[in-house]
Design brief:
The chain is α+β, with helices and mostly antiparallel strands. It is 27% helix and 23% strand. A hairpin with a 7-residue loop joins strand 1 and strand 2.
Length: 110
């Protein structure tokens, strides 16, 4: 990340994360969050890896991304049928242009 202080401000405001200084040079930070789960998305030849971060409310998270100066790819990943089984996925960029993904798990039947 070009400016780790900006990254700290963006991701801290988006996800409510705490940070501690990281071990690398360049002013990086370690994320103070517990249990990050992950997965892989296929069907994107030549694409770079994305980290998908779990959110409880996709629409609220997308609003925060935009308010923090980031952008949202409006393409629908997976469609309604996939969303029912796997949840919602959106690709975004932070305020420095770095790619990230958001994932809202599917709603469970009450």
């Amino acid at each position: 990340m070009e400016d780790p202080q900006r990254g700290k401000a963006f991701y801290g405001a988006l996800f409510g994360w705490d940070f501690t200084p990281g071990p690398s040079e360049g002013g990086g930070f370690m994320i103070g969050t517990s249990g990050i789960s992950g997965g892989m998305h296929g069907g994107d030849p030549g694409a770079v890896p994305y980290l998908f971060f779990r959110v409880d409310d996709m629409d609220a998270a997308l609003d925060r991304v935009r308010k923090l100066g980031g952008s949202v790819d409006d393409a629908d990943l997976g469609g309604e049928e996939s969303a029912a089984e796997y949840g919602r996925f959106k690709l975004c960029k932070d305020d420095q242009g770095s790619a990230l993904g958001l994932h809202e798990p599917p709603k469970t039947a009450a």
